[in-house]
Write a structure and sequence with these properties.
Two copies of one chain form a homodimer. Chain A is of the alpha/beta class and 199 residues long. Chain A folds into two domains: 49 residues, Helicase, Ruva Protein, domain 3, CATH 1.10.8; 97 residues, Dna Topoisomerase Vi A Subunit, Chain: A, domain 2. Helix content of chain A is 44%, strand content 13%. A four-stranded parallel beta sheet of chain A has the order 4-3-5-6. Chain A has a two-stranded antiparallel ribbon with strand order 1-2. In chain A, strand 1 and strand 2 form a beta hairpin. In chain A, helix 1 packs across helix 2. The radius of gyration of chain A is 22 Å and the shape is globular. The first copy, chain A, starts with 5 loop residues before the first helix and ends in a 5-residue tail after the last helix. Chains A and B meet through helix 1, helix 2, helix 3, strand 2 and helix 5 of A and helix 1, helix 2, helix 3, strand 2 and helix 5 of B.
Protein backbone atom coordinates (compact mmCIF):
# COMPACT_ATOMS: atom_id res chain seq x y z
CA UNK A 1 0.00 0.00 0.00
CA UNK A 2 1.19 3.46 -0.82
CA UNK A 3 0.78 6.19 1.79
CA UNK A 4 1.34 9.08 -0.60
CA UNK A 5 -1.23 10.55 -2.98
CA UNK A 6 -1.03 8.95 -6.45
CA UNK A 7 0.36 12.01 -8.24
CA UNK A 8 3.08 12.44 -5.62
CA UNK A 9 3.92 8.74 -5.89
CA UNK A 10 4.11 9.18 -9.67
CA UNK A 11 6.57 12.08 -9.31
CA UNK A 12 8.68 10.01 -6.89
CA UNK A 13 8.73 7.20 -9.48
CA UNK A 14 10.03 9.57 -12.13
CA UNK A 15 12.79 10.90 -9.91
CA UNK A 16 13.70 7.36 -8.84
CA UNK A 17 14.14 6.36 -12.48
CA UNK A 18 17.02 8.86 -12.85
CA UNK A 19 20.56 7.43 -12.66
CA UNK A 20 22.03 7.38 -9.14
CA UNK A 21 18.77 8.44 -7.46
CA UNK A 22 17.39 5.93 -4.94
CA UNK A 23 13.86 5.73 -3.55
CA UNK A 24 14.60 7.87 -0.47
CA UNK A 25 16.39 10.58 -2.46
CA UNK A 26 13.55 10.56 -4.99
CA UNK A 27 11.07 11.19 -2.17
CA UNK A 28 13.21 14.05 -0.93
CA UNK A 29 13.40 15.60 -4.40
CA UNK A 30 9.65 15.19 -4.95
CA UNK A 31 8.88 16.88 -1.62
CA UNK A 32 11.22 19.69 -2.57
CA UNK A 33 9.45 20.20 -5.92
CA UNK A 34 6.07 20.15 -4.14
CA UNK A 35 7.34 22.89 -1.86
CA UNK A 36 8.43 25.14 -4.76
CA UNK A 37 6.34 28.16 -5.75
CA UNK A 38 3.96 27.34 -8.61
CA UNK A 39 5.91 29.30 -11.22
CA UNK A 40 9.20 27.57 -10.32
CA UNK A 41 7.68 24.10 -10.57
CA UNK A 42 6.21 25.09 -13.93
CA UNK A 43 9.61 26.42 -15.04
CA UNK A 44 11.18 23.07 -14.11
CA UNK A 45 8.60 21.16 -16.16
CA UNK A 46 9.09 23.58 -19.06
CA UNK A 47 12.88 23.19 -18.83
CA UNK A 48 12.50 19.45 -19.44
CA UNK A 49 10.21 19.96 -22.44
CA UNK A 50 12.33 22.80 -23.87
CA UNK A 51 15.57 20.86 -23.61
CA UNK A 52 13.93 17.84 -25.24
CA UNK A 53 12.52 19.83 -28.15
CA UNK A 54 15.35 22.34 -28.74
CA UNK A 55 18.51 20.32 -28.24
CA UNK A 56 19.78 18.07 -31.01
CA UNK A 57 23.14 17.06 -32.49
CA UNK A 58 25.39 19.42 -34.47
CA UNK A 59 25.33 18.41 -38.16
CA UNK A 60 29.14 18.42 -38.26
CA UNK A 61 30.54 17.25 -34.90
CA UNK A 62 27.45 15.57 -33.35
CA UNK A 63 27.82 17.58 -30.14
CA UNK A 64 24.58 18.79 -28.54
CA UNK A 65 23.41 22.18 -29.78
CA UNK A 66 20.31 24.26 -30.40
CA UNK A 67 21.32 25.55 -33.82
CA UNK A 68 22.10 23.51 -36.91
CA UNK A 69 25.83 23.83 -36.18
CA UNK A 70 27.37 24.06 -32.71
CA UNK A 71 29.32 27.18 -31.60
CA UNK A 72 32.67 25.37 -31.86
CA UNK A 73 32.08 24.26 -35.48
CA UNK A 74 30.68 27.71 -36.34
CA UNK A 75 33.60 29.62 -34.81
CA UNK A 76 36.01 31.08 -37.41
CA UNK A 77 38.90 31.02 -34.93
CA UNK A 78 38.91 27.26 -34.28
CA UNK A 79 41.36 25.07 -36.16
CA UNK A 80 39.19 22.96 -38.46
CA UNK A 81 42.04 20.63 -39.47
CA UNK A 82 42.15 18.96 -36.03
CA UNK A 83 39.37 16.76 -34.65
CA UNK A 84 39.28 15.58 -31.05
CA UNK A 85 37.15 12.42 -30.76
CA UNK A 86 35.28 12.05 -27.44
CA UNK A 87 32.61 9.60 -26.35
CA UNK A 88 30.11 11.95 -24.65
CA UNK A 89 29.09 15.63 -24.89
CA UNK A 90 30.24 16.18 -21.29
CA UNK A 91 33.79 15.29 -22.35
CA UNK A 92 33.76 18.30 -24.68
CA UNK A 93 33.01 20.42 -21.63
CA UNK A 94 35.96 18.90 -19.73
CA UNK A 95 38.40 19.64 -22.55
CA UNK A 96 37.00 23.14 -23.18
CA UNK A 97 37.50 23.93 -19.51
CA UNK A 98 41.25 23.46 -20.01
CA UNK A 99 41.24 26.41 -22.53
CA UNK A 100 44.20 24.76 -24.24
CA UNK A 101 42.62 22.99 -27.20
CA UNK A 102 41.66 25.07 -30.22
CA UNK A 103 40.54 22.42 -32.71
CA UNK A 104 37.09 20.92 -33.28
CA UNK A 105 35.40 17.88 -31.77
CA UNK A 106 33.59 14.75 -32.80
CA UNK A 107 31.19 13.24 -30.27
CA UNK A 108 30.66 9.49 -30.71
CA UNK A 109 27.73 9.27 -28.25
CA UNK A 110 29.06 6.04 -26.79
CA UNK A 111 31.95 3.61 -27.13
CA UNK A 112 32.19 0.18 -28.72
CA UNK A 113 31.05 -2.34 -26.14
CA UNK A 114 30.33 -5.91 -27.24
CA UNK A 115 29.13 -6.70 -23.69
CA UNK A 116 26.36 -4.09 -23.95
CA UNK A 117 25.70 -4.88 -27.63
CA UNK A 118 27.05 -1.54 -28.84
CA UNK A 119 28.65 -2.04 -32.25
CA UNK A 120 30.21 0.36 -34.80
CA UNK A 121 26.79 1.21 -36.28
CA UNK A 122 25.38 2.28 -32.89
CA UNK A 123 27.78 5.19 -32.38
CA UNK A 124 28.66 8.12 -34.68
CA UNK A 125 31.60 6.50 -36.51
CA UNK A 126 30.15 6.80 -40.02
CA UNK A 127 29.82 10.58 -39.57
CA UNK A 128 33.48 10.83 -38.47
CA UNK A 129 34.72 8.88 -41.48
CA UNK A 130 32.65 11.00 -43.89
CA UNK A 131 33.99 14.13 -42.23
CA UNK A 132 37.62 13.01 -42.53
CA UNK A 133 37.08 11.89 -46.13
CA UNK A 134 35.40 15.10 -47.29
CA UNK A 135 37.46 17.71 -45.42
CA UNK A 136 41.07 18.67 -45.14
CA UNK A 137 41.80 17.05 -41.77
CA UNK A 138 45.40 16.78 -40.53
CA UNK A 139 45.08 15.20 -37.13
CA UNK A 140 42.51 13.17 -35.22
CA UNK A 141 43.08 13.03 -31.44
CA UNK A 142 41.51 10.04 -29.68
CA UNK A 143 40.18 11.34 -26.37
CA UNK A 144 37.98 8.42 -25.34
CA UNK A 145 38.24 7.32 -21.70
CA UNK A 146 41.37 5.40 -20.66
CA UNK A 147 39.38 2.22 -19.90
CA UNK A 148 39.03 -1.04 -21.85
CA UNK A 149 36.14 0.11 -24.01
CA UNK A 150 37.57 3.58 -24.63
CA UNK A 151 40.92 2.02 -25.59
CA UNK A 152 39.30 -0.51 -27.93
CA UNK A 153 37.23 2.21 -29.60
CA UNK A 154 40.35 4.37 -30.09
CA UNK A 155 42.26 1.43 -31.60
CA UNK A 156 39.35 0.52 -33.87
CA UNK A 157 38.96 4.09 -35.12
CA UNK A 158 42.68 4.60 -35.65
CA UNK A 159 42.72 1.57 -37.96
CA UNK A 160 39.78 2.97 -39.95
CA UNK A 161 41.30 6.46 -40.14
CA UNK A 162 44.91 5.69 -41.10
CA UNK A 163 44.04 4.89 -44.77
CA UNK A 164 42.87 8.52 -45.13
CA UNK A 165 46.44 9.64 -44.46
CA UNK A 166 45.60 11.59 -41.28
CA UNK A 167 47.78 11.63 -38.18
CA UNK A 168 45.94 9.72 -35.42
CA UNK A 169 47.05 10.49 -31.85
CA UNK A 170 46.01 9.42 -28.37
CA UNK A 171 45.93 11.45 -25.13
CA UNK A 172 49.12 10.94 -23.09
CA UNK A 173 49.05 8.50 -20.18
CA UNK A 174 50.91 9.43 -17.01
CA UNK A 175 50.68 10.60 -13.45
CA UNK A 176 47.91 13.17 -12.84
CA UNK A 177 49.12 16.67 -11.97
CA UNK A 178 49.01 17.25 -8.20
CA UNK A 179 48.80 13.54 -7.40
CA UNK A 180 51.05 11.42 -5.24
CA UNK A 181 53.39 8.68 -6.52
CA UNK A 182 52.60 6.55 -3.48
CA UNK A 183 48.94 6.30 -4.45
CA UNK A 184 49.43 6.02 -8.22
CA UNK A 185 48.49 2.57 -9.52
CA UNK A 186 51.12 0.36 -11.14
CA UNK A 187 49.71 0.52 -14.66
CA UNK A 188 49.68 4.33 -14.67
CA UNK A 189 53.19 4.49 -13.25
CA UNK A 190 54.52 2.06 -15.89
CA UNK A 191 52.93 4.16 -18.65
CA UNK A 192 54.37 7.33 -17.09
CA UNK A 193 57.90 5.86 -17.15
CA UNK A 194 57.39 4.52 -20.66
CA UNK A 195 56.25 7.94 -21.90
CA UNK A 196 58.87 9.97 -19.99
CA UNK A 197 59.96 13.22 -21.62
CA UNK A 198 63.25 15.12 -21.52
CA UNK A 199 63.32 18.24 -19.32
CA UNK B 1 31.21 30.88 -21.03
CA UNK B 2 28.83 27.97 -21.18
CA UNK B 3 29.57 25.14 -23.59
CA UNK B 4 26.09 23.64 -23.49
CA UNK B 5 23.07 24.90 -25.41
CA UNK B 6 21.01 27.37 -23.34
CA UNK B 7 18.01 25.11 -22.83
CA UNK B 8 20.24 22.25 -21.66
CA UNK B 9 22.05 24.63 -19.33
CA UNK B 10 18.66 25.75 -18.02
CA UNK B 11 17.65 22.14 -17.30
CA UNK B 12 20.98 21.53 -15.53
CA UNK B 13 20.32 24.65 -13.41
CA UNK B 14 16.94 23.28 -12.36
CA UNK B 15 18.35 19.91 -11.37
CA UNK B 16 21.24 21.58 -9.54
CA UNK B 17 18.75 23.59 -7.46
CA UNK B 18 17.37 20.35 -5.95
CA UNK B 19 18.63 19.44 -2.46
CA UNK B 20 21.73 17.24 -2.46
CA UNK B 21 22.28 17.50 -6.22
CA UNK B 22 25.60 19.06 -7.23
CA UNK B 23 26.54 20.54 -10.60
CA UNK B 24 28.07 17.31 -11.95
CA UNK B 25 25.11 15.16 -10.87
CA UNK B 26 22.74 17.73 -12.35
CA UNK B 27 24.53 17.45 -15.69
CA UNK B 28 24.26 13.67 -15.52
CA UNK B 29 20.53 13.86 -14.77
CA UNK B 30 19.94 16.41 -17.55
CA UNK B 31 21.76 14.20 -20.08
CA UNK B 32 19.68 11.27 -18.94
CA UNK B 33 16.44 13.21 -19.45
CA UNK B 34 17.65 14.34 -22.89
CA UNK B 35 18.19 10.69 -23.78
CA UNK B 36 14.68 9.64 -22.74
CA UNK B 37 12.03 8.94 -25.39
CA UNK B 38 9.84 12.00 -26.02
CA UNK B 39 6.79 10.57 -24.27
CA UNK B 40 8.76 9.72 -21.12
CA UNK B 41 10.27 13.20 -20.88
CA UNK B 42 6.78 14.63 -21.34
CA UNK B 43 5.44 12.27 -18.63
CA UNK B 44 8.18 13.53 -16.26
CA UNK B 45 7.23 17.16 -16.90
CA UNK B 46 3.54 16.30 -16.48
CA UNK B 47 4.28 14.48 -13.21
CA UNK B 48 5.74 17.70 -11.78
CA UNK B 49 2.74 19.77 -12.86
CA UNK B 50 0.21 17.14 -11.73
CA UNK B 51 1.77 16.74 -8.30
CA UNK B 52 1.87 20.53 -7.86
CA UNK B 53 -1.76 21.02 -8.84
CA UNK B 54 -3.36 17.92 -7.27
CA UNK B 55 -1.56 17.53 -3.97
CA UNK B 56 -2.54 19.70 -1.02
CA UNK B 57 -2.93 19.33 2.74
CA UNK B 58 -5.66 17.26 4.41
CA UNK B 59 -8.20 19.59 6.04
CA UNK B 60 -7.91 17.65 9.31
CA UNK B 61 -4.37 16.36 9.78
CA UNK B 62 -2.42 18.55 7.27
CA UNK B 63 -0.82 15.50 5.66
CA UNK B 64 -0.44 15.62 1.88
CA UNK B 65 -3.42 14.24 -0.02
CA UNK B 66 -5.34 14.58 -3.26
CA UNK B 67 -8.81 14.56 -1.71
CA UNK B 68 -10.22 16.98 0.85
CA UNK B 69 -9.44 14.49 3.63
CA UNK B 70 -6.52 12.04 3.62
CA UNK B 71 -7.11 8.25 3.65
CA UNK B 72 -6.06 7.96 7.31
CA UNK B 73 -8.51 10.61 8.52
CA UNK B 74 -11.23 9.17 6.26
CA UNK B 75 -10.73 5.58 7.45
CA UNK B 76 -13.49 4.36 9.82
CA UNK B 77 -11.11 1.83 11.44
CA UNK B 78 -8.54 4.34 12.71
CA UNK B 79 -8.68 5.48 16.32
CA UNK B 80 -9.64 9.16 16.12
CA UNK B 81 -8.94 9.80 19.81
CA UNK B 82 -5.17 9.52 19.36
CA UNK B 83 -3.07 12.00 17.38
CA UNK B 84 0.57 11.40 16.50
CA UNK B 85 2.33 14.72 15.84
CA UNK B 86 5.13 14.56 13.24
CA UNK B 87 7.13 17.31 11.58
CA UNK B 88 7.04 16.15 7.92
CA UNK B 89 4.74 14.06 5.67
CA UNK B 90 7.55 11.53 5.16
CA UNK B 91 7.48 10.79 8.91
CA UNK B 92 3.89 9.56 8.51
CA UNK B 93 5.22 7.09 5.95
CA UNK B 94 7.89 5.87 8.40
CA UNK B 95 5.36 5.24 11.16
CA UNK B 96 2.79 3.65 8.81
CA UNK B 97 5.48 1.24 7.62
CA UNK B 98 5.65 -0.15 11.17
CA UNK B 99 1.95 -1.26 10.87
CA UNK B 100 1.70 -0.83 14.64
CA UNK B 101 0.05 2.55 15.05
CA UNK B 102 -3.70 2.80 14.47
CA UNK B 103 -4.45 6.40 15.45
CA UNK B 104 -4.41 9.55 13.32
CA UNK B 105 -1.66 12.04 12.56
CA UNK B 106 -0.96 15.73 12.62
CA UNK B 107 1.74 17.03 10.30
CA UNK B 108 3.38 20.25 11.49
CA UNK B 109 5.28 20.89 8.21
CA UNK B 110 8.37 21.98 10.12
CA UNK B 111 9.68 22.42 13.63
CA UNK B 112 10.26 25.50 15.76
CA UNK B 113 13.67 26.86 14.89
CA UNK B 114 14.63 30.34 16.07
CA UNK B 115 17.92 30.04 14.13
CA UNK B 116 16.00 29.69 10.83
CA UNK B 117 13.31 32.17 11.88
CA UNK B 118 10.60 29.50 12.13
CA UNK B 119 8.18 30.50 14.89
CA UNK B 120 4.90 29.00 16.17
CA UNK B 121 2.88 30.77 13.44
CA UNK B 122 4.99 29.28 10.65
CA UNK B 123 4.06 25.65 11.33
CA UNK B 124 0.62 24.01 11.75
CA UNK B 125 0.25 24.44 15.52
CA UNK B 126 -2.98 26.47 15.39
CA UNK B 127 -4.69 23.65 13.46
CA UNK B 128 -3.57 21.10 16.08
CA UNK B 129 -4.89 23.16 18.98
CA UNK B 130 -8.25 23.70 17.21
CA UNK B 131 -8.45 19.99 16.52
CA UNK B 132 -7.75 19.05 20.16
CA UNK B 133 -10.19 21.70 21.42
CA UNK B 134 -13.06 20.69 19.14
CA UNK B 135 -12.74 16.90 19.19
CA UNK B 136 -12.71 14.17 21.77
CA UNK B 137 -8.95 13.56 21.84
CA UNK B 138 -7.45 11.35 24.55
CA UNK B 139 -3.77 11.23 23.72
CA UNK B 140 -1.30 13.26 21.67
CA UNK B 141 1.97 11.47 20.87
CA UNK B 142 4.93 13.74 20.11
CA UNK B 143 6.87 12.08 17.30
CA UNK B 144 9.12 14.95 16.23
CA UNK B 145 12.77 14.08 15.59
CA UNK B 146 14.98 13.43 18.65
CA UNK B 147 17.16 16.48 17.95
CA UNK B 148 17.27 19.90 19.63
CA UNK B 149 14.57 21.48 17.48
CA UNK B 150 12.29 18.43 17.55
CA UNK B 151 12.67 18.26 21.34
CA UNK B 152 11.94 21.96 21.80
CA UNK B 153 8.87 21.73 19.56
CA UNK B 154 7.57 18.73 21.51
CA UNK B 155 8.09 20.54 24.83
CA UNK B 156 6.43 23.71 23.53
CA UNK B 157 3.42 21.79 22.21
CA UNK B 158 3.02 19.71 25.35
CA UNK B 159 2.75 22.89 27.40
CA UNK B 160 0.07 24.24 25.06
CA UNK B 161 -1.86 20.95 25.03
CA UNK B 162 -1.90 20.05 28.74
CA UNK B 163 -4.60 22.66 29.60
CA UNK B 164 -7.00 20.75 27.31
CA UNK B 165 -6.73 17.76 29.66
CA UNK B 166 -5.23 15.40 27.04
CA UNK B 167 -2.45 12.93 27.78
CA UNK B 168 0.73 14.11 26.00
CA UNK B 169 3.38 11.44 25.39
CA UNK B 170 6.77 11.30 23.69
CA UNK B 171 8.36 8.46 21.70
CA UNK B 172 10.64 6.31 23.88
CA UNK B 173 14.39 6.89 23.77
CA UNK B 174 16.69 3.90 23.85
CA UNK B 175 19.02 1.63 21.94
CA UNK B 176 17.86 0.91 18.36
CA UNK B 177 16.80 -2.68 17.69
CA UNK B 178 19.62 -4.66 16.04
CA UNK B 179 22.27 -2.14 17.05
CA UNK B 180 25.44 -2.66 19.03
CA UNK B 181 26.09 -1.31 22.55
CA UNK B 182 29.70 -0.60 21.62
CA UNK B 183 28.67 1.91 18.98
CA UNK B 184 25.75 3.47 20.84
CA UNK B 185 26.45 7.06 21.85
CA UNK B 186 26.55 8.01 25.55
CA UNK B 187 23.40 10.12 25.54
CA UNK B 188 21.32 7.31 24.01
CA UNK B 189 22.74 4.74 26.41
CA UNK B 190 21.99 6.96 29.43
CA UNK B 191 18.40 7.40 28.25
CA UNK B 192 18.11 3.64 27.65
CA UNK B 193 19.20 2.92 31.26
CA UNK B 194 16.94 5.66 32.60
CA UNK B 195 13.94 4.26 30.73
CA UNK B 196 14.67 0.56 31.43
CA UNK B 197 11.66 -1.74 31.65
CA UNK B 198 11.07 -4.91 33.66
CA UNK B 199 11.19 -8.18 31.73
Amino acid sequence: MSFFPASLENLVDHFASLPGVGRKSAQRLAFHVLGLPDEEARAFADAILDAKSNVHCCRICQNLTEGEICPVCASPTRDKTTICVVSEPRDVLSIERGREYNGTYHVLHGVLSPMSHVGPDDIRIKELLTRVAENDIEEVIMATNPDTEGEATAMYLSRLLKPFGVKVTRLAYGIPVGSNLEFTDDATLSRAIEGRTEI
